[in-house]
Write a structure and sequence with these properties.
Layout: H1 3-11, H2 14-29, E1 52-54, H3 69-73, E2 79-85, E3 93-101, H4 110-114, E4 120-122, E5 137-139, H5 140-150, H6 162-173
Antiparallel strand pairs: 1-4, 2-3, 3-5
Bound molecules: iron/sulfur cluster (2 copies).
Length: about 180
């Protein structure tokens, strides 16, 4: 572009006027391009990595067995698992305490991949803005509630072998030592 042309464009704000004309054209057409969030919610793709949630089996039992592999896999060190023996099934464990600090989570999904029983999933929960950071410390119950909200279809719970349960019950009545509480 020649120098006088460029100077004229600068003096008469040609480019700004062109931009305004384009805006006016879309305004008159009435076709909104900008997503009107939060009135309109975005249509998120499958595989979206939002808040991490806990899942249940079809009978409502939580899937987590408290193995803490997710804790080991997490690069941000934001998961804490304290496991305990299940009172109804000796030698089977659950996460008695499960805490996920969402203020540190980078939504990488490593914990989901590390879980041997598919107890974790990335949900489409993305509205996590808050004025109270303490609300982002997720407990297992909060994560189970979110799992119930986003994952309605549940996997069938594998049947516990009756023979195995009877064996453990027998061992238990004979004073078989129980595993201690604590970090797995
Ligand atoms: S998504 Fe990544 S950072 Fe977040 S809890 Fe899982 S492993 Fe940790
Ligand atoms: S890896 Fe899965 S089963 Fe193990 S503690 Fe984490 S969520 Fe629970």
């Amino acid at each position: 572009m020649s120098a006088p042309n460029s100077l004229l464009k600068t003096i008469f704000f040609t480019e700004i006027l062109q931009g305004l004309a384009l805006t006016l054209k879309h305004l008159i057409k009435g076709k909104s391009i900008t997503e009107q969030y939060p009135r309109e919610k975005p249509n998120l793709p499958d595989g979206w990595r939002g808040a991490i949630v806990h899942l249940r089996y079809d009978d409502g039992t939580e899937k987590c067995v408290g193995c803490a592999l997710c804790e080991a896999a997490c690069p941000s060190h934001c998961i804490t698992v304290i496991s305990a023996e299940r009172p109804d099934l000796p030698q089977k464990r659950i996460a008695e305490t499960y805490i996920l600090d969402m203020t540190k989570c980078v939504f990488c999904g490593f914990c989901v991949q590390a879980c041997p029983v598919n107890a974790l999933a990335s949900s489409k929960e993305y509205e996590l803005a808050t004025t109270d950071k303490r609300s982002l410390i997720m407990t297992k119950d909060t994560m189970l509630d979110l799992g119930d909200k986003y994952f309605r279809v549940r996997e069938k719970r594998p049947e516990d072998s009756a023979a195995k349960i009877n064996l453990f019950e027998g061992l238990k009545s004979n004073g078989f030592p129980h595993a201690k509480k604590g970090k797995a």
